[in-house]
Amino acid sequence: xxxxxxxxxxxxxxxxxxxxxxxxxxxxxxxxxxxxxxxxxxxxxxxxxxxxxxxxxxxxxxxxxxxxxxxxxxxxxxxxxxxxxxxxxxxxxxxxxxxxxxxxxxxxxxxxxxxxxxxxxxxxxxxxxxxxxxxxxxxxxxxxxxxxxxxxxxxxxxxxxxxxxxxxxxxxxxxxxxxxxxxxxxxxxxxxxxxxxxxxxxxxxxxxxxxxxxxxxxxxxxxxxxxxxxxxxxxxxxxx
Length: 240
Description:
Blueprint: E1 6-10, H1 20-23, E2 31-32, H2 51-62, E3 67-72, H3 74-85, E4 90-96, H4 106-112, H5 116-128, H6 130-133, H7 140-151, H8 155-169, H9 174-184, E5 187-192, H10 203-208, E6 211-215, H11 222-225, H12 227-238
């Protein structure tokens, strides 16, 4: 539908944000799936990347139009800051296991402290064994998706974004910003059954959320584990 609001899908520390198996379920909307700075078509940028820079990038991508904003993991941080800065342009925010506390950034915290050469070696090890990185999967679709995720960004991008998300979510102003969002717009929370226990969502957020959805049979990378079901879930959320 040409008049349906645009949906912007913001990928996490490892991109991209799913593929057509998910996007096609949102066919009532125009779907925009940008590569963040340092990722995909921007993987060879020489500038440092940060949460702040990614918010500015989203501003260029979105322009002046009303959108539904969906952020996954670190992308949830980027989407939250964008929404807080542009509340009149964000119809709703869907937080898909986005960082609420430093506890959600435990892997980023470790990566940020890793020497650059070690981080590059670690990424190459992941790329050499994508099935193992994805929890030992033998599913051909998940293995192909993991190849794409691991090839989507260099180790330098991962380290820069990891450092930035730790810095942002570790500030005293982070929780007040998130509280503001729930008062400014509808906020929807989405979790995976297998990763929910590691998502540090405070009780106040669960109570204030417009909806809370827990998808069965999936973990943090739910858009690659059950892409159609994840897309259908998003479609249902955006219809509320």
